[in-house]
Amino acid sequence: MENVLRPLIVIGSAVALTLLIGWATDRLLQKADERNHETPLWGLLRRGRIPYQLVLCAAMLRGSYDQARLLEQHQAGIGRTLTLVLIGSAAWLVIRIAGAIVETSYSRYARAHRDPARVRRVRTQVELIMRVVSAIVIVVAAASMLLTFPAMRAAGASLLASAGILGIVAGVAAQSTLSNMFAGLQIAFGDMVRIGDTVVVDGEWGTVEEITLTFLTVKTWDERRITMPVSYFTANPFENWSRGTPQMTGIVYWHLDHSAPIEAMREKLRDILRECPAWDGRAHGLVVTDSTPNTIQVRALVTAKDADDIWTVRVTVREEMITWLSAEHPYALPRVNTAGAYLPPGSPRIPSQDGAQHRAYETPRTGRA
Question: For residue 34, what is the DSSP state?
């Protein structure tokens, strides 16, 4: 009877104490979260209640399973299993606590600073720091688990002796991976590109959606995802439209006839921009930038607060200006000249069908393109 009651009492007591302590700790964190609405720390710490209870239960069973006298012939295996569970749950708990602290620090920074660019920079750094911390904790936990096996401890001396050679071989084999990892750290702390930045890479316009230690994901305007190694951004030029300030200046081009009413177009541009909510009111202008034998190039300059709005302003100005020219000034649209050639003075006259002598030219005629 004792062989049955003793294991039940030991295991039952460990489980009961784990549930009781876990419930009490969760209640304390819940009350602290209700009293301190300005910080999310206590609410984030509650996410670690499962690994916290696993740590408590594994630690209690690890310290008292000898008294249970359950499966005495397998005590070594049970003890090692409980140790592995304890190490794994402790690593899980450390990652959750570190994540709660880092997320709380970021939230406070985001509330204190209104500059979106600085907030995105800190967000990028925070996420990469959490990935580094998680990787370190997982590696340490895995090494600790391996060292619980006697065979691994016995091989420790030989492993240390060959660590230099293995390090060189691993460095050569993982050269690209290591370069990407260092590039990711350089991007995070060098403030080259941040999550939420608008970039142009290989002719593709999009927003940085995710940055890891090895790759970066750009979400394009048509909702595609472009994934590339972070080392690309340290070795190749790219456009970052959000660096510094998100304000942008855009241009719109038209190719028109030489008779286009430039001054009237300037007034119409002002009217279009006044009715366009995306225009930020900083600047605008319209000038003739080039001319050809058949057309002139007219450029409008507009401004907006970010990349999305500048696109809206440009397409609005282009569409409404063309509509206005077609309705009010159709002669300003480009045309194809179908007039006959004018010969230079002194050229010989040719007879026409009616016998009259005149120069070889016809009355100029024009046709709409």
Answer: H
Tens place of pLDDT per residue across the chain (369 aa): 455 566 667 677 777 887 888 788 878 877 877 777 777 777 777 777 888 888 888 887 777 666 655 555 566 677 778 888 888 888 888 888 888 888 887 777 777 766 676 677 677 777 777 877 888 888 888 877 777 777 665 554 454 445 454 455 445 444 555 566 666 666 666 667 778 888 888 878 888 888 777 778 888 878 888 888 877 777 778 888 777 677 888 899 999 988 899 999 999 999 999 999 999 888 899 999 998 888 899 999 999 988 888 889 999 999 999 999 999 999 888 877 666 655 666 656 555 555 544 444 444 444 444
Maximum distance among all Cα pairs of the chain, rounded to whole angstroms: 138
Residues 144 and 59 in one domain: yes
- In a shared domain, residues 235 and 166: no
Is 356 contained in some domain? no
Query: Is residue 45 located within the same domain as residue 168?
Result: yes
How far apart (Å, rounded) are the C-alpha atoms in residues 218 and 239?
13
Select from 48, 56, 46 the least CA-distant residue to 15. 56
**Cα(45)–Cα(98) distance, rounded to whole angstroms?**
9
Co-location of 28 and 98 in the same domain: yes
CB 37 within 8 A of CB 99: no
Helix (H, G, I), strand (E, B) or coil at 216: strand
Q: Which two tokens stand for residue 175?
A: 């050269």
Give the whole-angstrom CA distance, residue 218 versus residue 211: 9
Residues 189 and 108 in one domain: no
Token pair in block for residue 105: 């620090």
Residues in Cβ contact with 112 at an 8 Å cutoff, skipping those fewer than 6 apart: none
Residue 354 resides in a domain: no
Residue 57: both structure tokens together: 């239960």
Write the CATH number for 276.
3.30.70.100
Instruction: Flag whether 355 is in a domain.
Output: no
Specify the number of domains making up the chain. 3
**Where in the sequence is the domain holding 156, given as residue range(s)?**
2-177
The 3-state DSSP class for residue 237 equals: coil
Beta bridge partners of residue 254, listed in sequence order: 298
The whole-model pTM stands at: 0.46
